[in-house]
């Protein structure tokens, strides 16, 4: 320090400076070029309920995905390389005005990001805000109310021994929820075993489940084999794809669930077990019952507690946190540092995700591998950029006039079925309302026209 300066100025060491910063009422974070926290002052405890040591070294994506703050200022600041400000909410309910300033190196790359955040409103307690503490979620992302309610319900159910049936489309998280129920149950220190009923042939499934005695069948291990049910004693057995097991096995399974006992293949003696069963399926069990493919009594045994996981398109609030969750996961796995653009996030949020979270996970993995530093809209498969167009099947024997008539009819019927209003049909198909009304009368005679 220049000795000729003001005589009252004292020399401040880095340590003193750090402790002085803890007196600040504003929160201060410093992130490195990998978006990892390298400095934070003591205000973090007030805003997030986390100590400095809980935050140092963590990635901004990781914290955003765990809902410590929403939305996140960081992706944009690293991409745009210019100062930004926004209002963020924290997990404790604090509302912050956050400003982030990037510090660039000689190659114009972001070296550090310094953020300061000032509280706008008083914060509430975690419970009041209905935020779920990270530790309780066991890696499950739960942002939408639909999934938060499901998890709260699962937590209550976990404390009982009741059989649970989890239904939902493929990839909605039935497997991860089953494991979660086990992890928050009193059986958490005992085994959790999964049996994929669709993947194992019937004969094998029986011996896998119940085990067999020595010499039970040709090719069997000479000393016999302990079955999964016995191995899972006092724990949880997850019967995945339960809709795919044969009627014969359904009868045997029903007995185990009812009586908590079974006889190994080739054996005489009953074995007692204490098991919690969780079953899952993406098939419509009631339809299978109607078709005689699933036993009604087993259905009621399994369905003591019924949880239905909604498809991802019905809980769009989960899409962005899940994207960051997977981005984080695959960036670590492939030792990359990929970012995602806002446009890309919007396109992914608007997509219908027929394969749900599994499809999203697979796509993010692929994008992390193949895209440049910033994952952008042009990296997405074509389906994400195109609006879905209805395809019309034409009868090949039609004349030109006949084909035109058929296309007209189909367009009018589809539009009217969707909107139920001649005004909206007119808007969508760019015709006058009177033309729309006339065509609806002509082609949708059985349906009532709303003006
Ligand atoms: N809420 C969530 N948070 C984080 N990851 C999730 C969540 N839900 C699902 N996943 C992940 O998505 C993938 C698919 O989930 P899971 O296998 O549990 O689905 P599923 O419904 O059992 O699928 P299927 O019917 O095809 O067996 C898994 O990798 C899982 O970890």
From TrEMBL:
Recorded superkingdom: Bacteria
CDD domains: AAA, PAS
GO molecular function: ATP binding; DNA binding
Residue ranges annotated for the PAS domain, each copy included: 13-58
UniProt-listed Gene3D superfamilies: 1.10.8.60, Homeodomain-like (1.10.10.60), P-loop containing nucleotide triphosphate hydrolases (3.40.50.300), PAS domain (3.30.450.20)
UniProt xrefs under SUPFAM superfamilies: P-loop containing nucleoside triphosphate hydrolases, PYP-like sensor domain (PAS domain)
Keyword list, A-Z: Aromatic hydrocarbons catabolism, ATP-binding, DNA-binding, Nucleotide-binding, Transcription, Transcription regulation
GO BP field: regulation of DNA-templated transcription
InterPro entries according to UniProt: AAA+_ATPase, AAA_lid_NorR, HTH_TyrR, P-loop_NTPase, PAS, PAS-like_dom_sf, Sigma_54_int, Sigma_54_int_dom_ATP-bd_1
A Pfam family of this chain: Sigma54_activat
Record-annotated Sigma-54 factor interaction domain positions: 140-369
Family annotation (PROSITE patterns): PAS (PS50112), SIGMA54_INTERACT_1 (PS00675), SIGMA54_INTERACT_2 (PS00676), SIGMA54_INTERACT_3 (PS00688), SIGMA54_INTERACT_4 (PS50045)
Protein name in the entry: HTH-type transcriptional regulatory protein TyrR
Organism, as annotated: Siminovitchia acidinfaciens
